[in-house]
Amino acid sequence: MRRPRTSPLIAVVLAVPITVVGLTTANAAQPAQPVAAPLAAAPAVLTALSRDLGLAPAQAVARLDAERTATKADHQVRATLGGDLAGTWFDAARGGLVVGVTSASAFAEVRAVGAEPRLLARSAAALDAAKTRLDAAAAGAPALPGWRVDQERNAVVVKHAPGAESKARAWVSAAGVDQSAVRYESSTERARPLIDVVGGNRYWTSKYGCSVGFSVQGGFISAGHCGKVGETTTQPGGRFDGSTFPVDDMAFIRTSAGETPIGAVNDYSGGRVAVAGAQEAPVGASICRSGGTTGWHCGTIRYRNATVDYGSQVGKVYEAIETTACAEPGDSGGSAISGQQAQGVTSGGSGDCKGGAATTYFQPVPEILSRYNVTLLTSDGPGEPPGGQCGTATTGSVNQGGTVYEPRATGSYQAAAGKHTACLAGPSGSDFDLYLEKQSGTRWSTVATSAGPSATEKVDYTGTAGRYRWRINAYRGSGAYTLEAKTP
Fold this sequence. Notes:
Layout: H1 10-14, H2 43-53, H3 57-80, E1 85-91, E2 96-101, H4 107-112, E3 116-119, H5 124-136, E4 146-150, E5 155-160, H6 165-174, E6 182-186, E7 192-193, E8 202-204, E9 209-211, E10 214-216, E11 219-222, E12 232-233, E13 238-244, E14 250-255, E15 264-266, E16 272-274, E17 286-291, E18 295-309, E19 316-323, E20 335-338, E21 341-350, E22 359-364, H7 365-372, E23 392-398, E24 403-406, E25 413-415, E26 418-425, E27 431-440, E28 443-450, E29 456-463, E30 466-476, E31 479-486
Parallel strand pairs: 2-3, 5-6
Antiparallel strand pairs: 1-2, 4-5, 4-18, 7-21, 8-9, 10-11, 11-14, 12-13, 13-14, 15-16, 17-18, 17-20, 18-19, 19-22, 20-21, 21-22, 23-31, 24-30, 25-30, 26-29, 26-31, 27-28, 27-30
Protein name: Streptogrisin C
Signal peptide: 1-28
Region (Disordered): 329-350, 376-395
């Protein structure tokens, strides 16, 4: 949902039933926060899973481990089964991946990766083709909350208002889709977009507040309904270089000089969850989202390839991720992450985070990265202490909240194309972060980051020839540091 900058409540009332939620609620700058330890030890993930999915901490850890195994198996079978694949989903009760196949001859291959095979009538390609025909006929659809591919039911599911199934059936028939492949679901859902450089933090346009999705090289990604190409943002400052809405709900905001995108997501518990990549988690896996209105909440992935209708005045979004995670006005554009893998940016939904049922839709991250040709920023977490293995050593000191650039004598260094390596060590108990910046004209841009929660960091970066500098930030603690660096 989108919120006016001057009066955060007006749009929620005036835009009913289509309200746009911003992910930023205040103009105060967000303080830097430490990146969390690896997923199994990230307290924010475990706490939210316990709260939102009713899991004990040990159950949450076990589920995350099982989901990581299932995700690996999911990628393996998708790469090898071809036309025999009928869909995949994570079965929480079983604690593993279920793989639908159209031929019993594929059972052995599925079992070989630790998954459970299930014989189904329709291939995943056939279901996607049926949904594509419905998407193509969307202009003639009656008032429907949306439609989706349901892999577990091996069907395309069309949602309709109570008592309106006959209209939905007539539309499906007119679209030329086989009725035997379609299931109908009565729904009172009334979805609306959710609007308002770390994932989940708020930012502002001249009119609205939204949330940062994920940091990428040069800026961050968010929801397209947050702003149009050319619009500017503050906190962080930037400009919409790309924006699409409806059909898709995606945007790329190129940040201004001095902003530092970080490969992490705000957990709204005083820390961050490091982003490790963008591997798609299977249906049924847990997912946690971060946003400026409601903070950090978790749910499960219900479906992929869902179409959601935000109403005649707004339009439809296709190929979305449908989840049980809650969100509210102001959360749009924010991060959705499974474990440490980026899944989507918040588009819209129904319900709220006050305890009732909720449905939230996300624009998948891989499509955004491909559309705008940008690279997701990740964080490798803490590095290793210098010990003469990373290069020539230099020492210095920095106060809490302060910044020092190395080499201090010249402020920067000229390098040929090749690999830059550095190891940083600060005082015991401190949290120092290390960044490699490259000059482009008069602007310095961060090209590599190590921002773990400890006193040691390591950066390895292979780049083109140019002028570079190391930046050391003291997030917590003050004192002497040692920096070992090798440059090409």
